[in-house]
Amino acid sequence: MNEEVDNTQERPVVNATRRGRTAVRAEQSASRGRNSNSRRSSGAAHSATRDRRQGARHASQASASRRGSASPRNPKRRGGVPVIVVILLLVVAVAASVYITRAVLTPQIEEAHKEAAVAKSQVSTLTQQLSSATAGQSSSSTNSSSNSSSSKEGDSSKNESAKGEGVDSPWTKSGKFTSGDAVLDSEVKAFCDSIANSSMDRDTAVLEVYKGVAWSEYVERDAAQHPSGKNWRTEFARMYYENGSSGNCYEFAAFLSYCMQYMGFDDAKAEGVLIQLQGGGWGDHGIVYVTSSDGTKCVCDTARGTDGWMLPESTYNVQMQDFENA
Length: 326
Known about the structure:
alpha+beta; 5-stranded antiparallel beta sheet; two-stranded antiparallel ribbon; 8 helices
């Protein structure tokens, strides 16, 4: 009996314990449900935020792509160097090339023209010499077959021919020029006409003739070292021309003086002088005295090249040499 009472008292305790456990489990289950719902809500919120950010990023990229296609930030990728710039650079390059070519070639062309003029005068000289030699041989054979009286007449006629009547000159007032030597007259005319032409005024033409003489080859020949005699000017002028337009200062001065006379400067005259040197002492020299177009007394010194043209007479301190009576 007592044992049954004890069993009856134990059941309520067991049942109460079971109900407590059930309640705990229910609470735990409810808590897990709430946590799961919270996590699902948070995940949905995060997903929505991520979707919004990706959508904004895609929209921004699309907008930038549209702006880039409308007006690219780097125009060089699209068009390169403008065509007009390339054309201007080509024009500048061509102009520079033409300018440089002219600057280099023009002096060479002028020098070639001068050399051609000298060559032309030399050919003319050789032709005249051949003609003179042929005429001399013919005259010699004729004279050898004549009697003494005809020989004297031939000599007299030859002397008259040597004096000459001059040659035509478009630069002198009379239209004529003579040095007193027919051969030299022809040589002077050939030289001047090969350089000067009717398109030039007289001062320009005579300057070009002066350059032609001044730029000739300077050669010292024993026979031309010491001028002497009344005819030294004609002799030295012919030596200059007949030796290929070359010689020393006396030959240059003699030939130039006759060229200037042919060009209308009637008082041009070659003189031998002793000229005072800068370092002291005196040196013998040949120069030309002449009156310029404006009436100034001048000297021309071929030894100085183009710088020796029409210098004032006072430029040099000189002593005249009397070659005519030497």
